[in-house]
Amino acid sequence: MTTTLPAQSACSTSTTSKGLRLVAKGQFAWAETPLRELSPGEVIVEVAGCGVCHTDIGFAYEGVPTRHSLPLILGHEIAGRIVMAGEQARKWIRHSVIVPAVIPCGDCDACRSGRPTICRKQFMPGNDADGGFATYVRVPARGLCPVPDELPKGLTLAMLSVVADAVTTPYEAIRRSGLSVEDVAVFVGAGGIGGFGVQIAAALGAAVVAIDVDADRLELASAYGAALALNARECADVKSAVRSFAKQSGRHGIGLKIFETSGTAAGQQTAFSLLGPGAHLAIVGYTAQKIELRLSNLMAFDATAQGNWGCPPDQYPNALSMVLEGRIHIQPFVEVHPLGEARQVLEAVHHHQLRRRAVLVPQ
Amino acid sequence: MTTTLPAQSACSTSTTSKGLRLVAKGQFAWAETPLRELSPGEVIVEVAGCGVCHTDIGFAYEGVPTRHSLPLILGHEIAGRIVMAGEQARKWIRHSVIVPAVIPCGDCDACRSGRPTICRKQFMPGNDADGGFATYVRVPARGLCPVPDELPKGLTLAMLSVVADAVTTPYEAIRRSGLSVEDVAVFVGAGGIGGFGVQIAAALGAAVVAIDVDADRLELASAYGAALALNARECADVKSAVRSFAKQSGRHGIGLKIFETSGTAAGQQTAFSLLGPGAHLAIVGYTAQKIELRLSNLMAFDATAQGNWGCPPDQYPNALSMVLEGRIHIQPFVEVHPLGEARQVLEAVHHHQLRRRAVLVPQ
To answer: Chain B partners of A286 at a C-beta cutoff of 8 Å?
Structure first.
């Protein structure tokens, strides 16, 4: 296994990447593959770290189909260093970058209309091609987010991998909601996504409520921005608790800004039940489960429910700035594991045995 | 019963209004009441016509509570002439007007934030006080929409009553959706609300699909702007039919603009099933029934579902202009009945026996 490569723009024929392939539902195999010739707009990233997302678990264990057929290396939260680049991407050589989880084509109707997240030619590593649970990954250079060489103390390039989804997806949901200092923001789910959402909303000056069923997560959310932490298992009337908090907060924003960040049916039920006049409900987490609800409440409350499929690459530098300025803390919310243990880590995430977001790091 | 009043700004003590009161669920009684002293900002409207809305049926037969306790005269789609006005509203005397179904206070946080439809001090005739199923109605002068004395041939002031909800509510939903000539607009339900929605969307240049279970409604929708009419009872695959229409339409708008205008659970299921990348779903109709759906589709499709509680009064003149310019046709979509038959008409609407929107006209 080669982990260091000469920084160059030509593809070395002897270089290989080692990664964990999903072979079939629940079945993995390690594979070592040569790095093929690069297209002019592509780069090879030497992976510093790759976050493990709920979406990977869906692909690996729940039968959610990947767009590229199996076998496929998963992983779409990637940070690393560019070690090779095609002709049009040479400026990236030696740069540290975060690879957007969703890379739009930049040229279609959707992209030109300012809706890059629904670009139909979008590229997602670990879905459209081999992803980041590997030593190297080949991606388009479009939309790469540059990372400075010097990072604040305690922060590593590997940890910044989670910016590519766990940070930017709630960031984009919050941006679209128009959250301001006059708002109350409610996060239903304070896990991988919600923990960062809480911090972003608090950094923007909103009064933040975190709701979860896990006491440790709630404690962490309280330490990093939540003014009210509610355990849904213990609080008999979440709705009343949120309402009286909103009333006492003295905020004059119109309607609650609710963020469903649990990706569970129960969380969605709670989030929808919090709708009131002028509310904005962002669906950030994903579950394939259906729920029963009175859709007309959107009409009766003059409310909006909105989903976002990731985040446009042009927003990544803004989210990264918040991390580098210490307004979003990553370290307490992640745990780093060697890539060699990827199989066990995925299994543990699948069985909800990890408390923090896992980042896989090639040794 | 007095139907003509001297146009004056003082309240005549001898003047009475005759209207149909809802006494209890499903029970009505005619009542004649004196017109009480006006507040400075109030006016008395001599009702020319009052539309019968699905919401009235909810109040009258389905146990939906009115904000003012019973007995109460229903009716919130009102057009008429101002015959008395308080001190601050004298300019309205003798003017023909449409009374907005929802009249915001104009002064609260919501109103000042440009969200008047969720004003908590809003006034709705036939809900907060006696409404338009009467010869006269007392309303605030705020937000009244002036109607010219000369109307296009075939159009009466009575017919214009339906602008106050049946026209303006889909108008506002369409406005919020950002509909353009590049869009495909789908109306699920071509009845009282959908019939006008189809016309507005077509007038704005969109390619319009109407879906209903009633052949006559679909025929009317086709005659007034729908390029494709689908009978949900006969079309085995509504989704595919809409998709292939959208493809052939050559429109480059991002995502379908879907308008749920049936106010039924089945219609909501159909509307939600049409969600695709970048779609906008407007919940315009109301039903208290719950439906089962995969809320995460909003996230997977980067889509938005939005409701609107009526329409801000400042949009009424725009909607009325479209009617006066002949871009929205009202006559084919309404049927006029004498106020004296209000009880029977409400009963008929309740049992879905009328094909068009009923307008009650004092004789």
So the answer is: 296, 299-300
Tell me the two tokens of residue A247.
């009333």
A306 contacts B296? CB cut-off 8 A: no
Please, what is the end-to-end C-alpha distance for chain B in angstroms?
10
Q: Three-class SS of residue B58?
A: helix
| Residue A209 bridge partners (DSSP) | A186, A228
Angle at A346 (CA atoms; ends A343, A351), nearest 5 degrees: 125
Q: Residues 6 or more apart from B234 whose CB is under 8 A from it?
A: none
B85: which strand partners? B43
**Structural contact between residues A257 and A284, judged by C-beta atoms closer than 8 angstroms:** no
3-state helix, strand, coil in chain A (%, to 5): 30, 25, 45
Q: Please name the member of B117, B252, B285 whose beta carbon is closest to the beta carbon of A109.
A: B252
Residue A254 has its nearest CB partner, among B110, B290, B293, at B110
CA neighbor of B261 nearest in space, from B287, B240, B288: B287
**Phi and psi angles of residue B320, each rounded to the nearest 5 degrees, phi first:** -60, -40
Query: Do A80 and A45 touch, CB atoms closer than 8 A?
Result: yes
On the question of a cis peptide bond just before residue A65, with omega within 30 degrees of 0, the verdict is: no
Nearest to B238 by CA among B204, B266, B264: B266
CB contact under 8 A, A309 and B287: no
Separation in Å, CA of A114 to nearest CA in chain B: 10
Each residue's pLDDT, cut to its tens digit, for chain A (363 residues) gives: 333 344 444 445 458 999 999 999 999 999 999 987 899 999 999 999 999 998 999 999 999 999 999 999 999 999 999 999 999 999 999 999 999 999 999 999 999 999 999 999 999 999 999 999 999 999 999 999 999 999 999 999 999 999 999 999 999 999 999 999 999 999 999 988 999 999 999 999 999 999 999 999 999 999 999 999 999 999 999 999 999 999 999 998 889 999 999 999 999 999 999 999 999 999 999 998 999 999 999 999 999 999 999 999 999 999 999 999 999 999 999 999 999 999 999 999 999 999 899 999 998
Asked if B300 lies within 8 A of A293 by C-beta distance, the reply is: no
If one counts every other C-beta atom within 10 angstroms of the C-beta of residue B277, the result is 19
Q: What is the dihedral of CA B113, B114, B117, B121, to 10 degrees?
A: 40
Kindly provide the residue ranges of all beta strands, DSSP E only, lying in B133-284, ordered along the sequence: 136-140, 145-147, 184-188, 207-212, 228-231, 257-260, 280-283
Query: A345 CA to chain B: closest CA distance, Å?
Result: 26
Q: How far is CA A97 from the centre of its chain?
A: 16
Task: Output DSSP code: residue A330.
Answer: -
3-state secondary structure of B319: helix
Residues in chain A: 363
* Nearest in space to B126 (alpha carbons), one of B190, B194, B78: B78
DSSP B36: P
- Nearest CA-CA distance, residue A337 and chain B, Å: 29
The span from the CA of A91 to the CA of A196, in Å, is 31
CB A190 within 8 A of CB A303: no
Mutate to test the interface with A, among B182, B299, B306, B311 (most CBs of A within 10 A): B299
Is B118 within 8 Å of A287 when comparing Cβ atoms? Answer: no
Distance CA A357, CA A351 (A): 13
Report the distance separating Cα B320 and Cα B151, nearest Å: 11
- Inter-chain touch B295–A292, beta carbons under 8 Å: no
